[in-house]
Write a structure and sequence with these properties.
Strands 16, 17, 21, 22, 23, 24, 27, 28, 29, 31, 32 and 33 form a twelve-stranded antiparallel β-sheet that branches. A ten-stranded mixed β-sheet has the order 1-5-4-3-2-6-9-10-11-14, with helices on both faces. The protein has 14 helices and 33 strands. By secondary structure, the chain is of the alpha+beta class. Strand 31 (554-561) and strand 32 (566-571) form a beta hairpin. Mean pLDDT is 86; it is low at 1-21 and 580-610.
Length: 610
């Protein structure tokens, strides 16, 4: 997790900034201030492992914000331990930040920050005790999008706030009558149309990320702008938050960066347009040619929060890219979605290699194994009926065609070379997925770490390059190692339930890592995940090496069809480190027939896809 360079220096300084027990000075200044900013800081493992919340607290204290312009009220909790001497571990505490100092205002006791009542009570207290002309709320932790929701309290069985939990807390706290100027999520995947529709009853502006966030999250020096523009509205402050965030990392960063400012008064128009678009699509779901067209377009739609096949059920997509992909089939409806997005998303910056439009939505596909439960959650949100109906119909089509996969020849939309290591006469283990970095002068290159095979699944693309996920177990926990550009190991990403981790855990000397690979028994046609023997990290960094494949390895193909099912092939006899005689399929091939070349063994493995 790449936290701010000066983090550890500031951690030492933190105790000097924090004044404990003296009582808040708020009663000494009764004038109504321009702003109150409340921060719901669910520290979780981000704090207990790496001090990320402490880091951002110090950044707030260091912003130079003068107390006469804004109240900053913070609820801390949700973590097993705080990486400072000021904040207690076993309780939720409300703090006030005043001129670079932190004062304890009130203990809320041993509360679960994944409980909607905790959020409600914090909001009620902040609104009553710190009134202001404008009020903003920032939700700080992990995020998981429309299905998984926000945060996890590691002290209470990873308690999470789903969208309907937040809706209840906002309503019960009185935000329907006293709307927030802005609602911000310093968390992954929360710039969703569904979150925005629910929030529109309680806030004017939403500031959030469509994709994952780096571990450093927002740059809280933005608070200093209130010294110069104390009456700035939510749109203006949102633009400052986006710009400071993007400028902190730089658009040429290896990190995935997205952040947008949404006009919540206009988001229902986006949802209405999404419903009309998918109502047009629903008529094509029953017939196979129509379904295949829709499934192909879903396969190429920009998706957020992807991981390896063991961690790939987020299914959040960019609303605008979804409309663009469908524009040849439904031009009028797609144009209406894009027009509504243009009116609703007032500011949006990112470093994606695909144009992003600032709002995402749930669209079941990679996580179809969990689709029934996800759609139950989605239906309860009460979004547009036509859009919800389409999701159910599309999911039914995916399940039906997976069940009938052996009788269908679905269109192949992605093809990659795969390297297989023979284990026994009938068993083969995947030793690498060979993208452009795995082919050189007609030779298959073997990706490995310390001589152990690794499989790199592409998960995201920025203007700088592609990110990959390697499925692993690290220190006893399943995770993905995230790699930039096939070489640079960025860190480890865990999934906290269905909520996606913000940033990455660093890989440290002494960490124990096992790599997962698919293992194929050609006698029984069974596929299983094989976990290699643990290795110990020897230095401060891991490096992926690429070498010609050892003699006796096999070359095959990994073919993904429109239904998100995967077919694997295996060449016979083994090809060593040379590619087979037939032409190497390009990455991202549309409409390619399954190979029927002599000597190719073909099996379908439904449900495993990258």
């Amino acid at each position: 997790m790449g936290f701010k360079k000066y983090m550890y220096v500031l951690l030492i300084m933190f105790a000097a900034f924090a004044l404990i027990g003296g009582g808040s000075p708020k009663a000494q200044n009764t004038a109504l201030k321009p702003y109150t900013i409340m921060i719901y800081m669910n520290g979780s493992d981000l704090e207990s492992d790496f001090g990320a919340a402490t880091d951002d607290l110090v950044e707030m204290l260091d912003s130079g914000l003068e107390a006469r312009y804004a109240n900053v009220v913070i609820l801390t909790g949700g973590t097993k331990r705080w990486m400072n001497d000021a904040i207690p571990d076993g309780e939720c505490v409300i703090w006030e930040m005043v001129n670079g100092h932190l004062y304890e205002v009130k203990s809320m006791g041993n509360r679960n920050m994944g409980d909607r009542a905790t959020l409600r009570d914090f909001l009620r207290y902040g609104l009553a005790e710190f009134p202001a002309e404008r009020v903003g709320l920032i939700m700080w932790d992990h995020g998981g999008g429309s299905i998984a929701g926000f945060g996890h309290d590691e002290r209470f069985d990873d308690g999470t706030l789903r969208l309907l939990d937040m809706d209840w807390a906002f309503r019960e706290a009185g935000l329907h009558e006293r709307k927030l100027e802005f609602l911000g999520f310093d968390a992954c995947l929360m710039a969703t149309a569904e979150m925005a529709v629910l929030a529109s009853e309680y806030a004017k502006v939403m500031i959030a990320s469509e994709d994952t966030e780096p571990g450093d999250g927002w740059d809280y020096t933005f608070l200093g702008v209130l010294n110069y523009h104390p009456f700035i509205d939510g749109f203006g402050l949102g633009k400052v938050i986006v710009d400071t965030f993007m400028d902190f990392f730089g658009e040429d960063s290896d990190e995935v960066l997205t952040l947008s400012v949404v006009d919540l008064t206009r988001v229902q128009l986006v949802m209405d347009a999404m419903g009309k678009l998918m109502a047009a699509g629903s008529g094509k779901l029953e017939a196979r040619p129509g379904f295949n067209k829709l499934a192909e377009r879903r396969a190429y739609t920009k998706t957020f929060g992807d991981g390896s096949p063991r961690d790939n059920e987020s299914d959040m997509v960019d609303v605008g890219d979804m409309a663009v992909r469908l524009s040849d089939l439904f031009p009028r409806e797609a144009k209406a979605v894009l027009r509504a997005l243009g009116d609703c998303v007032v500011y949006n910056r990112h470093n994606s290699d695909t144009e992003l439009y600032g709002l995402s939505t749930f669209y079941v596909y990679g996580g179809k194994a969990f689709g029934r439960e996800s759609l139950k959650t989605y239906s309860a949100l009460g979004m547009d009926a036509d859009f919800t109906r389409y999701l159910h119909g599309f999911y039914d089509g995916l399940v039906r065609r997976t069940r009938n996969a052996s009788r269908e020849n679905n269109e192949i939309i992605r093809s990659e070379w795969v390297l297989w290591e023979p284990v026994t006469a009938d068993t083969y283990r995947m030793a690498g997925i060979l993208g452009e970095s795995g082919i050189k002068d007609g030779e298959a290159l073997w990706p490995h770490i310390y001589g152990h095979s690794v499989n790199l699944y592409p998960i995201a693309s920025t203007r700088k390059g592609t990110q990959y996920a390697i499925p692993v177990k690290v220190n006893g926990r399943d995770a993905d190692i995230i790699v930039a550009g096939c070489y640079r190991v960025m860190g480890v990403r865990h999934r906290e339930g269905n909520v996606l981790q913000k940033g990455y855990d660093p890989i440290m000397p002494g960490d124990m890592i096992s790599f997962y690979s698919l293992e194929w028994n050609t006698l029984t046609d069974d596929f299983t995940w094989h976990r290699g023997r643990p290795i110990t990290v020897r230095g401060n960094t891991l490096r992926i090496d690429w070498d010609p494949a050892p003699d006796g390895y096999y070359i095959g193909e990994r073919l993904t069809d429109v239904n998100h099912d995967v077919t694997y092939t295996l060449t016979c006899p083994p090809m060593g480190d040379k590619l087979p005689a037939y032409t190497r399929p390009p990455i991202f091939t549309r409409g390619m027939d399954n190979p029927r070349t002599s000597g190719v063994h073909l099996l379908r493995f439904a449900g495993i896809a990258g």
